[in-house]
Amino acid sequence: MTTQALVLLGFILFCLGIFGVMARRNYIVVLLSIELIFAGAGINFITFSNAWHNITGQVFTIFLIAVAAGEAAVGLGFLVAIYRLKHTANVDEARELRG
Amino acid sequence: MTLGWILLSCLIVLCALGVVLARSPISSAISLLVGFIGLAILYLALGAEFVAAVQVLVYAGGIMVLYLFGIMIVDNDLLRLSRQVHNQAWIVFLIVLVVFIWAGRKLYHAQYRAQPAPVAVAAQVAPRKAGSSNTGDVAKVMYGTFLYPFEAASVLLLVAVVGGVFLAKKEI
To answer: What is the mean pLDDT of residues B139-167?
Structure first.
């Protein structure tokens, strides 16, 4: 598999993730789509780590997993808070900041 | 070998589609779980054994369980009955499609520096000295060059844990 094809695979995951973040209403699916974006970035890191024989990309992928773990913890905290406050998990019903 | 790559890529893309398109969030989560395992196999084939192990342990084992707990806490009937996409979803779809076709062609036809022949199996990747392992190489870079970012990442995780607990408390 060439570098180009792997970059394209990562880009497909990124685009699907962006679509999920912007189009879905369910808060949990939005968070899962963000994980898809992280996965696309991870594929790029590992691909170029492989292509350039450089281990730094793998180290950054581990940092990326740490960031994703933190994001999941805070995001699910938000889920519980929103659900307790409004009894819904649809992102377009939490619109207090809209003005 | 090529067939394996194609099947693996198809698995990952199908799982990603499942995440975005599934009606029930639990289907999305299970689809993402399968996709992450496929991703770990891809990392393994690209010569990143340690990252593949971390991917399975932390992502598939830890983060996905967290998400399943989140789905469990929220009432599921409420989630399933409502409409799944915004009214403006088709605009988002068009924008993403245009960007995908435009940038995807550029990415696919780009010439990347030091482009190797079709990427081979793990053994040929990353020329290693005898007696050194992938985990050891990662550790040397992580605790050498990237020591301060590593410490920053641990502070980030601490802050995330405190923030998660604080947000989920009874009264904010």
So the answer is: 92
**Across the A/B interface, how many CB contacts are shorter than 8 Å?**
245
ipTM, interface predicted TM-score of the complex: 0.91
Q: Could you write out the three-class secondary structure of chain A? A: CCHHHHHHHHHHHHHHHHHHHHHECEHHHHHHHHHHHHHHHHHHHHHHHHHCCCCHHHHHHHHHHHHHHHHHHHHHHHHHHHHHHHCCCEHHHCCHHHC
Shared domain for B132 and B67, answered yes or no, is no
Query: Is the pLDDT higher at B132 or at B41?
Result: B41
Domain-embedded: residue B93:
no
**Lowest model confidence (mean pLDDT) among A7-11, A41-45, A92-96:** A92-96
Q: How many domains is chain B partitioned into structurally?
A: 2
Chain B residues with beta carbon closer than 8 angstroms to that of A90: 82
As a whole number, mean pLDDT of residues B3-9 equals 91
CA angle A1, B115, A8 (to 5 degrees): 45
When scoring A4, A33, A46 by the number of chain B Cβ atoms within 10 A, the one with the most, hence best to mutate, is A46
State the residue range of the domain holding B164. 128-172
In tens, the pLDDT along A14-29 reads 999 999 999 988 889 9
**A contacts of B44 (beta carbons < 8 Å):** none
Interface contact A46-B115, CB threshold 8 A: no
Same domain, B1 and B78: yes
**Predicted confidence (pLDDT) at residue A40 exceeds the cutoff of 90:** yes
Q: Does residue B152 sit within a domain?
A: yes
Spell out the domains of chain A, with CATH numbers in brackets. Answer: 3-98 (1.10.287.3510)
Beta-carbon separation of B46 and A32 below 8 A: no
